[in-house]
Design a protein that fits this description.
The complex is a heterodimer of chains A (about 525) and B (about 375). With about 525 residues, chain A is an all-alpha fold. Chain A contains 16 helices and 2 strands. Chain A has a two-stranded antiparallel ribbon. Chain A has one domain: Cytochrome c oxidase-like, subunit I domain (Cytochrome C Oxidase, Chain A), CATH 1.20.210.10. Chain B folds into 3 domains: about 80 residues, Helix Hairpins, CATH 1.10.287; about 140 residues, Sandwich (Immunoglobulin-like), CATH 2.60.40; about 100 residues, Cytochrome Bc1 Complex, Chain D, domain 2 (Orthogonal Bundle). Chain B is of the alpha+beta class and about 375 residues long. Classes of the chains: A mainly alpha (about 525), B alpha+beta (about 375). At the A-B interface, α3, α8, α9, α10 and α11 of A face α1, α2, α3, β7 and β9 of B.
Chain lengths: ~525, ~375
């Protein structure tokens, strides 16, 4: 039964192998990351100075929208699905994913979703320009024609995510090696199991929201139009009922990655494994009941406002537990600082920082000043970029030697880390100041009092962008002619089943399940 | 540029918590790093709870990050340490679950009180209706028959760099909102088209202006001055170009101003039957066009292909004048073209119709008079 991969392009088109599909997801997400990043560079270039220099305001809005949508749905989510595909079967001792053909389908519809989305840039009237949150009626009655293509591509992405999640749930529930009880699973598997349930729960809500939009735009309904008996605020409730769990969908697998890497380079087991699992579940539960904290200025009754404030503040508790656990894992370890560890430590510090601003944002009375300002932009980039993207980068460096049997260039990795870390902070730290001083988000132009920090922020953004090119180069150079690694266990302190298979990981692994003690 | 960057880092080092207290529009500081304290009870409450939260975060952050940094130095493998093997401790884990929860409960009290202040719009002495339009604001003094639009005054030339940017770049409007000092003013907000959000940091007001729904906010201040704000909810192309300027005047001055506005409105009503000359209409029409129409249809009347139709040689501007007036008065259903009947006076609509029919090489040659517009409105 042991056979290698098929030859030529057919290998990738028809593959049902979890490693091939994982690789496809990872390359696809990186391509989207560069595209979304390019849009971010256009945004920061325009905001380098006050006044409109490079683009027009209507195109600026298309850039912010496409940047957000592509980063969230095209870059971060597929990146973690790619990691799940590669690592979950290896971590639980399964030969492959439970539903390999569906696995192929759930990947291969994605490129079409994003081709459709990207093609809107060339349509008459331009690409979607209503922000990644696409609030009605800006996204319905006042939207460009291309909104229909946007809705269509959202549906395809949603279908892909739902199939991917069902596959992950089925794999984890059915294909664990004998003896691998739930509480013995690596935390990355746990966080993905919980994430997959979140996805199955909320992607249909998103599908419902965009379908209602489609009806309002084309078939004369008035779900979101007060003039027809509907309610524009209803859209926001539905969107954020999807949207808040969505941010945890993005960050929970990142928690899993960090919980694998920090113990490895601390040479010490993860502290508080059980509490990590419970904290993850608690965060997932809370994510369903806090959505309207995104809507504190929409004029909710004060009782609603207070409830969402209290519930949101609660999230700080399980999140704090996680941070304390990571720090205590490092305590009395024997630390080394290879690239994956550097990214994880930066993750803990910067994600915690983003958590602090999140706690500040939860206080509704202060949120009237923060809401929709650059303070919010800074906050969610601290948790999304320094959170999800940093941990994704750490994961690639950590598992790349296992995937391709070659070691990356450590010096280049560390140089990339420092450029990314410094560039990131130069970009987003000043945005806190801009927001507090009164600059709203999604502004194509601004008054002179915001000029200095915007310029600093743009310089940082170009630095951060450059770091990603170095990352791409380092990964390609490793795959082509990195130094071969032959140890099963690439890192001294690494633990887990994935380090018991040969390096590079053979095309088929765990044809016979391992026994877990 | 380098000089500027250098100066900036000096600022960052020295002025860590530099809250400028009074938001005079004239004092534009690039050095403001913190939330303004503002001039109302609400803005003060927001500032206080913001600072409290910030210091709580700073203290916890200093402890956690300090400990991390210590660990990173003390427990590195290169110092020859042997890793310990512990991986749980019920007491510690319970403590760091319960203690943060207690801190949150304590914080919840001031947070609740601050929010109660924000929501206390009761017993207002005055009501102002604020309507968000793409891309300007309308202010209506309820019960006073005074209503006007407030649009950006900064010129397209300044925005596109054909002209030096003025000191108040993007912070200036043609007609600011004027409110009296020492008076509790209630704002009733709504939107005409998409969702906007009326944000004046110094007043501590940010409230969404939703089409078809009313929301409320309030302000009361004794600080006479000029306060600048922005639209805070993405509302389309010119989201960044619809600033808010609020002038707080002493009560007597405000009353005089309001009387003046009322008189002007009455005088306008009495002269509506007057016939305007072509030159007068064209001159006024150009101004109206630049303020209200050029945003979509372009200064040159060419529009944006596929989004906003051109004015040059179009069916509307070159066709029958009744239809043209109708488009201005009622808008076009199902498109971004809004009804201008409530935003522009009869004179302005007549002027802009005339202008569009006779500018940029359009040569219809006819004129619309204010009375035609009024008749069209009443004939419905």
């Amino acid at each position: 039964m042991a056979h290698g991969p098929a030859k030529g392009i057919g290998r990738w088109l028809f593959t049902t192998n979890h490693k091939d599909i994982g690789t496809l997801y990872l390359w696809f997400s990186f391509a989207m990351f560069l595209l979304g990043g390019f849009f971010a560079m256009v945004i920061r270039a325009e905001l380098f100075q006050p006044g409109m220099q490079l683009i027009r305001p209507e195109f600026f809005n298309q850039m912010t929208t496409m940047h957000g949508v592509i980063m969230v749905f095209g870059a971060i989510m597929p990146a973690f699905v790619g990691l799940a595909n590669w690592m979950i079967p290896l971590m639980i001792g399964a030969p492959d994913m439970a539903l390999p053909r569906m696995n192929n389908l759930s990947f291969w519809i994605l490129p079409f979703a994003f081709l459709t989305l990207a093609s809107t840039l060339f349509m008459e009237g331009g690409a979607p320009n209503f922000g990644w949150t696409f609030y009605a009626p800006l996204s319905t009655k006042y939207a460009p024609e291309s909104v229909n293509y946007f809705i269509f591509s959202m549906h395809i992405m949603g279908a892909s995510s739902i199939m991917g999640s069902i596959n992950i749930i089925a794999t984890i529930m059915n294909m664990r090696a004998p003896g691998m009880t739930y509480m013995k699973m690596p935390l990355f598997v746990w966080t993905w199991l919980i994430t997959a349930f979140l996805l199955v729960a909320v992607m249909p809500v998103l599908a419902g929201a965009v379908t209602m939009m489609l009806m309002d735009i084309n078939f004369g309904t008035s779900f979101f139009d007060a003039a027809g008996g509907g309610d524009p605020v209803l859209f926001q409730h539905i969107f954020w009922f999807f949207g808040h769990p969505e941010v945890y969908i993005i960050i929970l697998p990142a928690f899993g990655v960090v919980s694998a890497i920090i113990p490895a380079f601390s040479r010490k087991p993860l502290f508080g494994y059980a509490s990590m699992v419970y904290a993850t579940a608690a965060i997932a539960f809370l994510s369903f009941i806090v959505w309207a904290h995104h809507m504190f200025t929409v004029g909710m009754p004060i009782a609603g406002e207070l409830y969402f404030m209290y519930a949101t503040m609660l999230i700080a508790v399980p999140t704090g537990v996680k941070v304390f656990n990571w720090v205590t894992t490092m305590y009395k370890g024997a630390l080394t600082f290879e690239t994956p560890m550097l990214f994880c430590i930066a993750f803990v510090i910067l994600f915690t920082f983003g958590g602090f601003t999140g706690l500040m944002l939860s206080v509704a009375a202060a949120d009237i000043q923060y809401h929709d300002s650059y303070f919010v932009v800074a906050h969610f980039h601290y948790v999304m970029v320094a959170g999800a993207v940093f941990s994704g980068t750490a994961a690639v460096y950590y598992w790349l030697p296992k995937w391709c049997g070659k070691m990356y260039n450590e010096t280049m990795g560390q140089v990339q880390f420092w450029i990314a870390f410094i560039g990131f902070n130069i970009t987003f730290m000043p945005q806190h100041f801009l927001g507090l001083a009164g600059m709203p988000r999604r502004y194509a132009d601004y008054g002179l009092q915001f000029a200095d920090w915007n310029m600093v922020s743009s310089i940082g953004a170009f630095m951060y962008g450059a770091a990603q090119l170095l990352f791409l180069y380092n990964v390609i150079a490793t795959i082509r002619n990195g130094k071969p690694v032959s140890d099963n266990k690439v890192w001294e302190g690494a633990e887990g089943l994935e380090w018991e298979v040969p390096t590079p990981a053979p095309y088929h692994t765990f044809a016979t399940p391992p026994q877990i003690k | 540029m380098l000089k500027r960057a250098k100066a900036l880092f000096a600022v960052a080092l020295t002025a860590l918590v530099g809250a400028s207290s009074v938001g005079q529009a004239a004092e534009v500081s690039t050095r403001q790093l913190n939330m303004p304290q503002g001039v109302t009870e609400v803005s003060q409450a927001a500032y206080d709870i913001h600072m409290l939260m910030m210091w709580v975060c700073v203290v916890i952050g200093a402890a956690v990050f300090g400990f991390m940094i210590y660990v990173m130095f003390a427990h590195r493998k290169s110092r020859g340490v042997k890793p310990a093997n512990f991986h749980e401790h019920v007491g510690v884990e319970l403590a760091w679950t319960i203690v943060p929860a207690l801190i949150l409960i304590v914080i919840a009290f001031p947070a609740t009180n601050a929010l109660l202040k924000v929501y206390d719009a009761s017993e207002a002495e005055m009501d102002i209706k604020i309507t968000g339009y793409q891309w300007k604001w309308q202010y209506e003094y309820l019960g006073e028959d005074v209503r006007f639009m407030s649009s950006l005054r900064t010129s397209q030339d300044e925005i596109y760099g054909r002209e030096e940017k003025g000191e108040h770049y993007l912070r200036e409007v043609d007609n600011p909102l004027v409110i009296p000092a020492d008076t509790k003013v209630r704002f009733l907000l709504t939107g005409n088209d998409v969702i906007h959000s009326w944000w004046v940091p110094d007043l501590g007001v940010k409230k969404d202006a939703l089409p078809g729904i009313f929301t409320e906010a309030w302000a009361k201040t004794s600080e006479v001055g000029v306060y600048v704000g922005e639209c805070a909810e993405l509302c389309g192309k010119d989201h960044a170009f619809m600033p808010i300027v609020v002038e707080v005047k002493p009560k007597e001055e405000f009353n005089a101003w309001l009387a003046e506005q009322k008189a002007a409105a009455a005088e306008y009503a009495s002269t509506i039957g007057k016939a305007w000359s072509m030159d007068e209409l064209m001159e006024r029409g150009e101004q109206v066009y630049l303020t209200n129409c050029a945003g979509c249809h372009g200064v040159d009347g060419l529009g944006i292909p596929g989004v906003f139709p051109p004015m040059v040689g179009s069916e509307v501007t070159m066709g029958p004048i009744e239809k043209h007036i109708d488009v201005l008065v009622n808008g076009v259903q199902g498109t971004a073209m809004q009804a201008f009947a409530a935003q522009l006076s009869e004179v302005d609509i007549a002027a802009v119709v005339t202008y569009e029919r006779n500018a940029w090489g359009n040569d219809v040659g006819d004129m619309a008079q204010p009375i035609d517009v009024l008749n069209h409105k009443n004939g419905q």
